Amino acid sequence: MKFVAFERAKQGxxxxxxxxxxxxxxxxxxxxAGQPQLIELDHNALWHALKKEVFHSTILDMEFNASTSKVxxxxxxxxxxxxxxLHIDFQRVEADTKLQMKVPLHFxxxxxxxxxxxxxxxxxxxxxxxxxSCLPADLPEFIAVDLSGLKKGTSLHVKDLVLPxxxxxxxxxxxxxxxxxxxxxxxxxxxxxAADAAPAAAGKAGAKAPAAKAPAAKAPAAKAPAAKx
Length: 229
Hints:
By secondary structure, the protein is of the alpha+beta class. The chain has five helices and 14 strands. It is elongated and about 75 Å long.
């Protein structure tokens, strides 16, 4: 994807505020052999570009001073409540240097999986993007995730993914994070819990029932006093 950037002469809070009033967004480009480059972009064009997934997850062609360079979007600062981009950061890309990037996960086949089609389970997407490491030429726009094989009681982990050639996952200390989990319907969980609780409740009721008391023996009748002779 291509975008146009212009040289920014001034920096500072006041200069950036005046720039935004004119419909431009201040930015900066880091990395590479050169010094950080101050740039400005047309706000409306940038606003529409940010709505596209490809602008966030692929290498971009930046036209600047009649030349084109490869960059990655690294940070966007938005206004708290206005539809306004306050500042944007890019990083220069070198062909022979590996980069780390978050790319979106595109899920498919969920409705055809046994977990949904047969057992009517719920599929929860624990993660919607994945951090990867690769050379710029190997950077994928997204990673396809096939969920058609999911079964009840299972989950999908990072190691279950088939990553493109030259791409490796970055898990940052987590050995094998969960990406998708299969959740049993709440009604079924309640039925199982009730079935398990029934025998226990019956046992407790039997234990608490008092033993029947044997009828008390009748006291012998009192004898009448003997008559005096």
